[in-house]
Amino acid sequence: MLEAKKVLKKSNLRPTSQRVAIVDYILQKNKVHITAAKLITHFKNKNISISLATIYNNLNELADKGILRKFYVNNDKMWFDSNLQDHYHFYDSEKDELIDIDKNEISFSKSPKIPDGKIKDSINIIINLKNKN
Questions:
Q1: Pairing of the two strands 97-102 and 87-92
Q2: Residues in CB range of 123: below 8 A, 6 or more apart
Q3: Count of CA atoms in the C-beta half-sphere (13 A) of 46
Q4: 8-21 b/e with 16+ CB inside 10 Å = b?
Q5: What radius of gyration do the chain's Cα atoms show?
Q6: Which structural domains are found in the chain, ordered by start?
Q7: How far is CA 133 from the centre of its chain?
Q8: pLDDT tens digits along 33-79
């Protein structure tokens, strides 16, 4: 919990008990892919009371501060990733989990021209998986 408070203070976020619990979970897991729904289930199992809205708000604030990376899978579910290094993902819909793909495992032969006045912020690649039938 002490490390979580340090991370929050460094990011100029007030270390509320909810934020500390969320950041502590993220730090304990090291590299974690999380949704608000998965996080609320974790906290309910630990008898920690945090509302879903509070979890969403805090995860978004952590993403805004650069502590997490936020992205959508299939345009309907917001995921947060604590691995801030360039990398990509497999998405296993049956297990509802993301699996990291090292950036060196994918290569691009051509990249589109970036519009004037813009720079590349990030590239998100998600390869959807399903079981063999």
A1: antiparallel
A2: 86, 88
A3: 12
A4: beeeebeeeebbbb
A5: 17
A6: 2-79 (1.10.10.10), 84-129 (no CATH)
A7: 30
A8: 999 999 999 999 999 999 999 999 999 999 999 999 998 887 778 99
